[in-house]
Write a structure and sequence with these properties.
about 0% strand, globular, two-stranded antiparallel sheet, mainly alpha
């Protein structure tokens, strides 16, 4: 046994001391040497080795402690199910009596251990605490053997505050406090501290160093960029929170009440933001027993607004249908832009974590350390790859003189035409058996159901015979005889075969003898679709991915599991007593809490009305924990994508000569002469200024008519700028005629026969015609069908956006993307589509009879009252789009039963990463093609790719002296002095900025003043504080604001005065005024002066001044002087402009086009309709009900002003919702079938294409501020 030297000698100062995470003893000792000489030291050393699992008995003890930890955690989790006060509707809650509770859970102080007088406890907990107490005392006794710094009394005190010591104390001391100091109190939270025992498991095999220990490494390595990104994220969060507060503080739809069935429209709000819903049937404010408000606006203060804004910055919009108009505008900005900026810190942390893993793997690979837990041995796993097994069988030729040999050759070698025909027939049978299952879920006639049932039975019988023949003939290969047959049975295809037929036969036997349905077993027929794997080799790559990442997945997966259990338990404690019954039901036990927490950790927040502590926890999960939890999921998806892409590299290299040509935005030279050439050149902006102006006017008209078309869908604005539509149609008609005349000179058509017919049938010509022909038809036939459906044909105007593709190619690049990535798309789409089909079937089986939780009415699906998830998942085809939404990573529906949650667990863990690959491939391919077109180099970390005239001029001024003042040398001296005070002076030797004491004091003063102003804005928004201070002129906030504005005004004036001596202002006060800092400075003071002028004129009251005071939040941007970030935004946009032009148009087309389709399909969807209480939901005796009308307008015609649509009422409204959808959050899911088709398109490709420009901005911003700088430096310095 080889024992590492435990003590560092005083004279060996150069030898490094091991850290807590450094293994002190080799895991595989071979010889024994010791540095101790006394018998006592020998015993202590033996004890230490035992505790550290470095002896055979120590290994057994370690396994025993792991078992105790798991038992302790499990009893806490399961014990939460046996609390009747929380699980009121559960029969299980009453199953554990006094003796059971005394043995296992210790929920009640009056159980069988009551005589001990130590409060609520259990025998299991007493035993576990006893073991861990002794373990801790022994570790304390041998602490100096861990590290020399723990020697002596002082060292032992240090040991008390070490990580694992605190873990041990936190998991044991509360037991003694509860039992002996406070035995008569109910300290429920102390039971939760058992969860800390899980952290002890991280110490096993060095996993602490490889898991939690990485977090501080990530923070250290990314500290510079992470600090900047956090500043950006926090600033965006604070500013948006303030503006959301401003937009929604008076919105009655945002009122939340603890009492049920409240019509918030009759509630009132006073000037301070307090809500009174007495008229709606709620108690008056302050009358509840807890002293808590009964009703409040969830945006009544910036503090409350910050939680909801944080959710939206995560991409979650839990109140999507309750926003006001300005709230929707802010929500759209958040969904389109702010989410990407806010995601910077999370992205940096996640990428840093993965970089640390990769670095450690490289290090382990270089050192060749076989003992490292990061190393996976070659050939590990002991299994046989699915397709490898098949190929090994093919290498053997069967004996044709035996039946088995003939069958083997027929099935495996397929060496005859009949064998290949058999395979083709089996493929057809797989497809039809899958379709049969799907159709059997629809409510068909008895005869059809009987026919489908017999077909399923026959299909399964054929599949069973085939499976048995495969197993029978496998023995022809000597390797798969005897025990080898079991290896063959577990190969990919045979496992798929067994999974697809065995459940059917089990349900068939149950149906035969007991009764019931064959449907649960039939769904597994969908797994047969994996047989098409033989053509793509997609799923058989998964074992390679798992094996290559097994070490990392084990470590990060355990960390993710720990986070899941920890936060589930924590939220269970904070939310189980929630006054909101819905929230309490989801957190009534730890297992129930684990369902919602799983979604939280995956980046979702389907619930929102948390307690104060709950909001903090959920916010922390979103900002930090999701980055760690998502690592194993991301590794699976990324590993699969990398493997598929690598397999595709050879094909792409072979086809490099066929590189995709990108259409140039500049028209080719015209061919031909005379009128044709003149027309062609004129409409394409060639040859004259008038042609260029005409082309620009077309751009402007396209944008203007699209905006007008959107606005005209709003009731009351139907004639908004209608005259411009006449002008636009006239201009577009002239343009079309000119293009028609000039098409003979267009290089695309000039060399073809029937050129004008070909032009008329071309893509752009059809777009042009669809944009103008309906106008003329409606004009010529005022009572025609076209005119009666004018609102739909108006949407055709939006197609004019596609005309811009002629000038900025985007849509026409999609086919180039598909050709470029066709191989990897084939493989990844097969994997994604197969998983989608299978999980849709599993979700149908799990939910089609789930009546456990009630949901909103679904009249479109035939349910108006008492609806459940069984109405949503009534058949396979309804399950398919809903499952697609979940596979995008969004979970807007959470009312699932137990089986549905199990299926969704696997969707979260495995399927999301794989099904997102096609979208990622499309997005990367599109960006690759656009970048190849622009021929721009990568963005450098100093932002040079985005430099403009300012940056160029700034570099030109290097070394030049500032100009002299026209007012003489005295002013020059003053300007230099002010400049030194404001910005310090640069030391020419060191290059550092040197400040005088007065400058330092001034800088600190203004930092404190900025922070104080931000705090004042937040405090003033809190109703209780605002009411206490009052809105009268001269209140505390007014006085503080006056003094603040005075100081900021002086600072701004001094900066303008000294700008002549500032190279950062290009030695010009005017330039400074329009720089980022100049604009921020004026924004921080100008609103106060406007407010002061309005108040003096009597045009503003006390409450309205808050609107101006909110603008003080912009003063947070003045901290830019300390952390450079936002001043680089213009560089970011310039660095990305080439890609943004093409991808931005693509995003706008998808956004506006999808919005138009959703508006057309969903504006009268009864699932989103609500009516006055006096209107019946469904008609009786000839009187129609709310849901009986084809449109909401017809409902209002019959019941005046009593019917309303909650969503998709006009294009601006719809565009907000679609912006949210494209951000990955589906606030609505119960669409009509045309709407579901649009939904599925967005799930498959739309979201990926839409996200390209946002991702481009993300990458550019990271490059400009230095994201990845450390990684690049590491790569440059690393040896080849």
């Amino acid at each position: 046994m080889t024992i590492t030297k435990l003590h560092q000698q005083d004279d060996d100062a150069s030898s490094p001391l091991p850290s807590e995470s450094t293994p002190l003893v080799s895991p595989k000792p071979s010889t024994t040497t010791t540095t101790t000489s006394t018998k006592n030291d020998d015993k202590r050393l033996s004890l230490f080795l035992f505790l550290e699992a470095q002896t055979p008995n120590g290994l057994h003890y370690e396994s025993f402690t792991i078992l105790l930890i798991l038992l302790s955690v499990l009893t806490f989790i399961l014990g939460s199910l046996f609390l009747p006060q929380y699980n009121t509707n559960s029969n299980i809650a009453y199953k554990c009596g006094s003796t059971c509770d005394a043995i296992w859970f210790g929920n009640y102080s009056d159980n069988a251990l009551q005589s001990l007088g130590i409060g609520a406890t259990s025998l299991i907990e007493i035993f576990i605490v006893g073991v861990f107490t002794i373990d801790y005392l022994l570790r304390f006794y041998t602490a100096d053997l861990i590290h020399v710094k723990y020697a002596g009394i002082t060292g032992r005190i240090k040991f008390l505050f070490s990580f694992f010591s605190l873990v041990d104390l936190a998991s044991t001391i509360p037991f003694y406090v509860d039992s002996f100091l406070l035995p008569n109190t109910d300290l429920a939270a102390s039971n939760f501290l058992r969860m800390f025992r899980l952290l002890r498991m991280l110490k096993m095999e060095g996993r602490y160093d490889l898991a939690l220990g990485m977090i501080d490494d990530v923070i250290y390595e990314q500290r510079g960029v992470l600090g900047t990104a956090l500043f950006v994220g926090m600033t965006v969060w604070g500013v948006l929170s303030s503006f959301f507060y401003l937009a929604e503080r008076k919105n009655s739809d945002m009122i939340y009440c603890l009492c049920e069935d409240v019509d918030t429209s009759v509630c009132t709000m006073d000037e301070f933001g307090f809500v009174d819903c007495t008229e709606a049937g709620c108690p008056p404010p302050g009358d509840d027993a807890g002293g808590q408000e009964v009703c409040w606006n969830v945006y009544q203060s910036i503090v409350l607004s910050s939680f909801w804004t944080l959710m939206e910055l995560f991409g979650e919009f839990p109140l999507v249908d309750q926003h006001s108009m300005w709230g929707k505008v802010l929500g759209t900005i958040t969904a389109v832009f702010a989410c990407a900026v806010f995601a910077l810190p999370v992205g940096i942390f996640a990428s840093g974590f993965e970089a640390q893993i990769a670095a450690r793997r490289r290090k382990d690979g270089e050192s060749g350390g076989s003992n490292s837990p990061m190393v996976v041995k070659e050939g590990g796993g002991g299994g046989v790859e699915g397709d490898e097994t098949e190929w090994e069988l093919v290498d053997v030729v069967g004996d044709i003189s035996t039946t088995r040999g003939i069958v083997y050759n027929f099935l495996h070698l397929q060496n005859s035409a009949s064998a290949k025909m058999f395979e083709m027939c089996m493929n057809v049978l797989i497809v039809f058996s899958s379709l049969t299952f799907m159709l059997s879920t629809i409510d068909l006639s008895t005869n059809w159901q009987l026919l489908l049932g017999w077909f399923q039975f026959a299909s399964v019988a054929v599949f069973t015979v085939e499976y048995l023949l495969f197993m029978y003939s496998a023995g022809e290969n000597p390797k798969f005889r005897g025990r080898g047959l079991l290896v063959y049975a577990t190969s990919f295809y045979r496992a798929v075969d067994l999974v697809s037929i065995l459940p059917y036969w089990l349900t068939f036997l149950s149906w035969l003898f007991v009764g019931g349905s064959l449907t649960p077993g039939s769904v597994f027929l969908l797994f047969r679709l994996m047989h098409f794997e033989k053509y793509t080799k997609a799923f058989t790559s998964f074992d390679d991915v798992l094996r290559d990442n097994l070490d990392v997945l084990a470590m990060t997966g355990f960390s993710a599991l720990l986070l899941w259990i920890f936060f589930s338990s924590l939220l269970y404690l904070t939310e189980r007593d929630s006054l909101d019954q819905d929230m309490a039901n989801y957190y009534k036990s730890v297992p129930h809490s684990m369902w919602i927490t799983l979604l939280n950790l995956s980046g979702e927040c389907p619930l929102a009305h948390y307690s104060g502590f709950g909001k903090i926890i959920v916010g922390f999960i979103g900002v930090f924990a999701t980055a760690i939890f998502g690592v194993p999921i991301g590794l699976l998806g990324a590993g699969f994508e990398e493997l598929v892409t690598e397999e595709d590299d050879d094909d792409e290299n072979d086809e490099s000569s066929d590189e995709v040509n990108v259409v140039s935005s500049t028209p080719s030279s015209a061919t031909g002469a005379g009128l044709q050439t003149a027309c062609y050149q004129f409409v394409n902006g060639i040859g004259s200024k008038s042609a260029t102006r005409f082309e620009l006017s077309i751009y402007a008209l396209i944008v203007a008519t699209v905006i007008i078309g959107v606005v005209q869908t709003v009731p009351g604005y139907e004639s908004f700028f209608s005259w411009l539509e006449w002008v636009a149609v006239g201009v577009f008609t002239i343009e079309y005629v000119l293009r028609f005349i000039g098409c003979g000179a267009d290089p695309e058509f000039s060399g073809l026969s029937f050129k004008r017919i070909r032009y008329i049938l071309s893509f752009y010509s059809i777009i042009d015609l669809l944009a103008i022909v309906p106008f003329y038809i409606a004009l010529a036939t005022p009572t025609s069908w076209v005119d009666r459906h004018d609102e739909y044909f108006r949407m055709l105007r939006l197609l004019r956006l596609l005309k811009l593709d002629k000038y900025i190619p985007s849509i026409t690049l999609v086919d180039d993307v598909v050709r470029l990535k066709r191989n990897v798309l084939t493989v990844s789409c097969f994997a994604a589509l197969t998983l989608w089909v299978i999980f849709a079937g599993l979700m149908y089986i799990a939910e089609f009879q789930d009546n456990s939780m009630e949901i909103d009415p679904l009249p479109l699906y035939g349910c108006v009252d008492g609806c459940t998830m069984s109405d949503r998942f009534s058949d396979y085809f309804n399950s398919f789009p809903l499952t697609g939404i979940h596979l995008t990573g969004d979970f807007p529906m959470v009312e699932y039963g137990g089986m549905g949650r199990v299926v969704l667990f696997f969707i979260v863990i495995a399927a999301v990463g794989v099904t997102s690959i096609p979208s990622g491939v499309i997005a990367s391919g599109f960006a690759e093609i656009v970048q190849s077109k622009t021929k721009k180099g990568p963005i450098t970390k100093d932002g040079a790719a985005g430099d403009d005239w300012f940056d160029i001029k700034y570099r030109e001024l290097e070394g030049q002296s500032p100009p002299s003042s026209s007012f003489g040398p005295t002013v020059d001296i003053l300007q230099f002095a002010v400049k030194r005070y404001l910005d310090g002076a640069v030391d020419e030797c060191t290059g550092t900025t040197v400040r005088t004491p007065i400058s330092i004091i001034g800088r600190l003063f203004f930092m404190l003043l900025i922070v104080s102003n931000i705090v004042a804005v937040v405090l003033e928004s809190i109703p209780k504080i605002d009411k206490y201070v009052g809105n009268e002129p001269g209140n505390m906030f007014d006085v503080f604001e006056k003094w603040s504005v005075l100081f900021f005004t002086i600072d701004y004036s001094l900066r303008l005065f000294s700008a002549k001596k500032s190279r950062e202002a290009l030695f010009s006060p005017w330039v400074y005024a329009f720089t980022f800092f100049g604009i921020v400075d004026i924004l921080s003071i100008l609103p106060w002066y406007v407010q002061w002028i309005l108040s003096k004129s009597g045009n503003i009251n006390g409450d309205e001044t808050k609107v101006f005071r909110i603008f003080r939040i912009f003063r947070v941007l003045q901290l830019e002087d300390f952390v450079v970030a936002f001043s680089k935004l213009d560089n970011v946009f310039r660095a990305s402009k080439d890609v943004l032009k093409a991808t931005g148009l693509m995003a706008v087309v998808i956004w506006v086009g999808s919005s138009a389709l959703f508006f057309i399909f969903e504006q009268n969807n009864p699932n989103f309709r609500s009516c006055d209480a006096s209107v019946p939901l469904t008609g009786t005796l000839g009187t129609p009900g709310c849901y009986d009308f084809v449109s909401t307008q017809e409902c209002n015609d019959f019941y005046p002003d009593m019917c309303s649509q909650s969503a998709f009422t006009n294009m601006p409204n719809t565009m907000f919702y679609v912006a949210v959808f494209l951000g990955g959050d589906w606030g609505f899911v119960d669409f009509t079938w045309p709407g579901k088709l649009v939904c599925m398109f967005l799930c498959v490709a739309g979201i990926a294409l839409y996200s390209i420009p946002v991702g481009t901005l993300f990458d550019s911003f990271g490059a400009v501020i230095g994201l990845g700088e450390e990684e690049e430096e590491d790569e440059e310095t690393s040896p080849m």
